[in-house]
């Protein structure tokens, strides 16, 4: 039987509507990062400067080389910054050619220095022939006890600390972006109500920052029931197309113990829009190595794949014994529960196969 023109038109309209709906649903599939492995990507390793913990990943490119900076701590009790490198040409985020055996930025020997106790939270950016590496310095004597400091290198291996450190007093967890030939330096500052806010200041030379002109650019949602209701921590930023994307830790209850990773975007680095399907990554199952908290989600794109390195903390003891369950509960339910005793930071890796731009539409 021959189908009437009206029937064919109706069929085509229904099919077109269904096809568009399928395309829309596909484009709106939520962004979700998946773990590369159930084990840490960079675990604690005996007889290294990160035998006790490894944390705070930061990735940048300099002179055809990809750098993975991180914080390590050994039995000495001092946090110091180390790195892995690989040629950018063959980089995939998973394989790193060279593991530098010693810290590239050690703590200062002088007790009056702003970083004689710990050096952590690396954030690096290249400009011309120099690599600027910002970090949190912790002091045993000077006030306020923590600050943002700077070290500069021309070869990516030998770093010289800025003689007038710190560059920002009272700030921690820096992140840096080069935009319109200006250094945009983000850092955390504690606010009333025991929560972090993320602030921004700029510089033309990467050394002199006027914190009197800083601006608060991001903070907790304040909305009951959201994953980042109470505080936000350790934002990392990368650019794709017209947008800058920030991945960050969201704290529902505590100052600095994020259970999940969120995503936001901005065109001007000042005004940020949260992703409506947050969070994009959640902490591991109870008993796993990253069951407790997640920090420093660092993202870089390789081809059509987004790679994320992150710091996770947990016991990794499983759930088979009473003692394991007890320590796991502590790591999950208390801020820094059992930290450096039964719970330790290590670095993980996760991947998202898709498009941030398409998923956001």
Determine and state the CATH class.
Answer: Mainly Beta
Pattern of helices and strands: HEEEEEEEEEEEEEEEEEEEEEHEH
- Regions with pLDDT < 50 over 5+ consecutive residues? 1-27
Tally the beta strands.
22
Write the layout of secondary structure elements.
Elements (H helix, E strand, L loop, with lengths): L4 H23 L6 E2 L17 E10 L2 E9 L5 E9 L10 E2 L18 E10 L2 E9 L7 E8 L5 E3 L6 E2 L2 E8 L2 E10 L3 E9 L11 E4 L12 E10 L2 E9 L8 E7 L6 E2 L6 E2 L10 E10 L2 E10 L7 H12 L10 E10 L2 H5 L1
Antiparallel strand pairs: 1-22, 2-3, 3-4, 4-5, 6-7, 7-8, 8-9, 8-10, 11-12, 12-13, 13-14, 15-16, 16-17, 17-18, 17-19, 20-21, 21-22
In short:
This protein has helices at residues 5-27, 322-333, 356-360; strands spanning 34-35, 53-62, 65-73, 79-87, 98-99, 118-127, 130-138, 146-153, 159-161, 168-169, 172-179, 182-191, 195-203, 215-218, 231-240, 243-251, 260-266, 273-274, 281-282, 293-302, 305-314, 344-353. The chain has 361 residues and is mainly β.
């Amino acid at each position: 039987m021959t189908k009437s023109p009206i029937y064919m038109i109706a069929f085509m309209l229904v099919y077109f509507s269904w096809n568009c709906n399928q395309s829309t649903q596909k484009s709106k599939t939520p962004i979700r990062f998946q773990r590369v492995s159930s084990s840490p990507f960079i675990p604690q390793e005996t007889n290294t400067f990160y035998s006790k913990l490894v944390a705070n990943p930061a990735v940048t490119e300099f002179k055809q080389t990809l750098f993975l900076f991180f914080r390590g701590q050994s039995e000495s009790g001092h946090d110091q910054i180390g790195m892995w490198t690989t040629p950018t040409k063959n980089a995939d985020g998973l394989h790193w050619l060279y593991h530098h055996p010693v810290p590239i930025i050690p703590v200062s020997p002088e007790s009056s220095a702003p970083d004689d106790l710990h050096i952590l939270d690396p954030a690096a950016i290249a400009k011309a022939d120099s690599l600027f590496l910002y970090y949190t310095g912790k002091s045993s004597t000077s006030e306020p006890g923590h600050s943002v400091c700077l070290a500069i290198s021309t070869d990516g291996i030998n770093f010289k600390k800025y003689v007038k450190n710190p560059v920002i007093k009272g700030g921690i967890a820096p992140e840096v972006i080069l935009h319109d030939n200006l250094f945009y330096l983000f850092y955390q500052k504690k606010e009333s109500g025991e929560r972090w806010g993320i602030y921004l200041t700029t510089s033309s030379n990467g050394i002199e920052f006027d914190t009197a002109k800083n601006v608060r650019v991001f903070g907790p949602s304040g909305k009951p029931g959201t994953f980042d209701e109470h505080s936000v921590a350790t934002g990392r930023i990368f650019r794709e197309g017209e947008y800058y994307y920030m991945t960050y830790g969201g704290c529902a209850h505590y100052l600095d113990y994020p259970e999940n990773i969120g995503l936001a975007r901005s065109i001007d680095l000042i005004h940020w829009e949260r992703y409506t399907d947050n969070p994009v990554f959640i902490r591991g199952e109870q008993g796993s190595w990253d069951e407790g908290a997640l920090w420093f989600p660092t993202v870089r794109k390789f081809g059509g794949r987004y790679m994320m390195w992150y710091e996770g903390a947990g016991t990794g003891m499983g759930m088979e014994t009473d003692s394991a369950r007890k320590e796991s509960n502590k790591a999950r339910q208390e801020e820094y529960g059992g930290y450096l005793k039964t719970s330790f930071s290590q670095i993980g890796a996760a991947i998202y196969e898709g498009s941030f731009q398409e998923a956001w539409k």
